[in-house]
Design goal:
By secondary structure, this protein is α/β, with parallel strands linked by helices. It has helices at residues 17-28, 53-58, 99-102, 112-115, 117-125, 143-157, 183-194, 245-251, 300-309, 404-413, 457-476, 545-564, and strands at residues 3-4, 8-13, 33-36, 71-74, 82-83, 200-201, 211-212, 218-219, 255-258, 261-269, 272-280, 286-296, 327-330, 336-340, 351-359, 378-385, 417-424, 433-441, 447-452, 481-484, 502-504, 521-522, 525-530. Helix content is 22%, strand content 21%. The radius of gyration is 23 Å and the shape is globular. Residues 219-329 form the Glucose-methanol-choline oxidoreductase N-terminal domain.
């Protein structure tokens, strides 16, 4: 029988960026917060001298254990889903800090177009621009409303960057200057300029200089060691929850962090969330943690799954289009081009997670779609993240995948090949969604989350258009051979592509078509807030973390209002549309 614990003001399920932000803001306001994290505790000292590519890059040392908890996957409703036995297409993290430990650090603001995508598309191109069962919709908030929260997150993380003429408008400069440029980035920038585009240095959470944030936490200067993605930073120079918001919460004396605590159920009474039930993964003991407010701050897929297995909200039905929990799952499209150089050599082994250059000329609605049969686009970037020897084997098409020739060309092109990659937007489709698997269960006896997803005509058309641009820039850079990426006939759960999953608990202004309001408070359970990229009504042309951070700060503000007023559904601020 589960042991009942003393009630607290707020409990968070997960302690990464979102859980850390909620904890820091609520404890600073005087509230008691318990953070439940199913993984182990981690800090900068745990990452000293761990440049172990095999352990972290190949064997996923910081990621979720699929032998205990995974997802099942299928392309469409007519297939039987099968469990993902090894991590592939995306890499859910585990442990304190979550994905904020092993991320690369690219920190973008979604565009004003993203937040009002349906209204703006309909106004400019008509309501029939995108034909078919696409379910894109406005987010219930404008960029003008969300902009102060973007800046709040950038201040907390000390983001290094520069003005972007094609990006979201800014009222303030970045907290720190952009990172260093390099010959590789300069080659991309010059080629882009020659073609009439507008390159900028990528906004980065690998800081260009030491920075003390408004909460008094110090983030160190990046050392360009090249071990960012899938690694924790041994220098404390990659902004993460572990060096920013979590220490801030702990200093208040009102935050209790409990690790190895796997939440398996949200407890409800009278239509309100009253706490959670969790399992101590070491001892096997069960506990119930009561709270005035429950905040889901886990990974996208887990937020959706917990609501479904706790019977909270209306599950989405793709056949009727009714319901909201599990709706609008989106991934990301990756148009790209690889260039092979015979004479030029580059120091590709050096770098940092967000050391890169980007153009946004083909992102959002920055280019005219009148004669195109798709919407949106994507950022186009070159990055110098630091190639590591085991997983970096770029070779021209036709090269064997093993053997003598493979080894020779792997060595030859290790520092003679470059890649330009776009993060293409993903527009939701009626048939792409999440629900509970009727067959497979996890280690604790709960149903796995089932993902039903495949590429759409919109995806293919966007991919083709943006890939061509990537190839043109690479040719302008002087590559001897340029190979453009192709999108596969069907999405596959392997190999790794991007961890940028979104949707499932989407935000909006209408309870009939969204699960949470623009404070991320559930329409169907006023004391329950669901924070993260699960709130995205579609996936944009950027990494999601900057927008996740902004929404988390807005949600923290909403939770404070909820507690101050003693409950009740929060009144959303009136969205002043850019169309007015």
């Amino acid at each position: 029988m589960a042991k009942q614990l003393n009630k607290v003001d707020v409990v968070t399920v997960g302690v990464g960026w979102t859980g850390g932000i909620i904890a820091a803001e609520l404890t600073k306001a005087g509230y008691n917060v318990v953070g439940l994290e199913r993984g182990e505790d981690r800090s900068t000292r745990d990452f000293q001298m761990i440049h172990d590519e095999y352990r972290y890059d190949i064997r996923y040392g910081l990621m979720q254990d699929t032998s205990k908890e995974t997802i099942s996957f299928r392309n469409n409703l007519n297939e039987s889903a099968l469990p993902m036995r090894q991590l592939g297409s995306f890499l859910p993290g585990s442990g304190v800090g979550g994905a904020g430990v092993h991320w690369n650090g690219q920190t973008w603001r979604f565009l004003p177009y993203d937040l009002e995508i349906k209204s703006m598309t309909d106004k400019k191109y008509g309501p029939d621009k995108l034909k078919g069962d696409y379910t894109y919709q406005d987010w219930g908030i404008s960029y003008k409303e969300l902009e102060p929260y973007f800046y709040k997150f950038e201040q907390t993380a000390g983001i290094s960057g520069e003005d972007n003429p094609k990006g979201a408008p800014r009222s303030n400069d970045y907290p720190t200057p952009p990172m260093k440029s390099t010959p590789i980035l300069d080659l991309f920038k010059n080629a882009s300029k020659n073609l009439g585009y507008h390159p900028i240095q990528m906004p980065s959470a690998n800081l260009s200089e030491q920075f003390k944030n408004p909460d008094g936490e110090t983030i160190n200067q990046c050392q360009y060691c090249g071990f960012c993605e899938r690694f924790g930073c041994e220098y404390g120079a990659k902004s993460s929850p572990n060096v920013t918001v979590i220490p801030t919460a702990k200093k208040t004396g009102k935050f209790e962090l409990r690790t190895q605590a796997n939440v398996v159920e949200i407890i409800s009474e009278g239509g309100k969330a009253t706490g959670v039930r969790y399992v101590d993964v070491v001892s096997g003991e069960e506990f119930i943690q009561p709270a005035d407010v429950v905040v889901l701050t886990s990974y996208v897929l887990n937020n959706t799954r917990l609501l479904l297995q706790s019977n909270i909200g209306r599950p989405y039905n793709p056949e009727t289009g009714q319901g909201v929990i599990g709706k609008n799952y989106c991934y990301q499209i990756l148009p790209a081009a690889v260039g092979f150089f015979e004479e030029k050599k580059f120091n590709t082994f050096m770098g940092a997670g967000s050391l890169g250059a980007t153009i946004d000329d083909f992102n959002g609605d920055n280019f005219d779609h009148s004669d195109l049969d798709f919407i949106h686009g994507g950022s186009i970037s070159i990055t110098q993240t630091g190639r590591r020897p085991i997983a970096s084997n770029a070779t021209p098409s036709g090269t064997p995948e093993w053997g003598k020739e493979f080894k020779q060309k792997s060595i030859h092109y290790f520092n003679r090949s470059l890649s330009i990659v776009s993060q293409g937007a993903s527009i939701p489709h009626r048939q792409n969604y999440m629900d509970l698997d009727p067959t497979y269960k996890d280690f604790y006896g709960n149903p796995l989350l089932r993902l039903t997803y495949d590429f759409t005509d919109q995806d293919r058309k966007l991919h083709k258009h943006i890939t061509k641009v990537c190839g043109e820039i690479m040719s302008e850079m002087g590559a001897d051979t340029v190979e453009e990426a192709e999108i596969s006939e069907h999405y596959s759960i392997v190999p790794y592509q991007t961890t940028h999953n979104t949707g499932g608990v989407i935000m909006g202004a209408d309870p009939e078509t969204s699960a949470v309001n623009n404070y991320l408070q559930m329409w169907d359970s006023e004391s329950l807030f669901v924070v993260g990229a699960s709130a995205f009504a579609h996936n944009g042309g950027y990494n999601p973390t900057g927008t996740v951070g902004a929404l988390a700060y807005r949600s923290a503000e909403g939770i404070k209002k909820y507690l101050e007023q003693g409950g009740g559904q929060l009144v959303q601020s009136k969205t002043k549309s850019n169309l007015a």
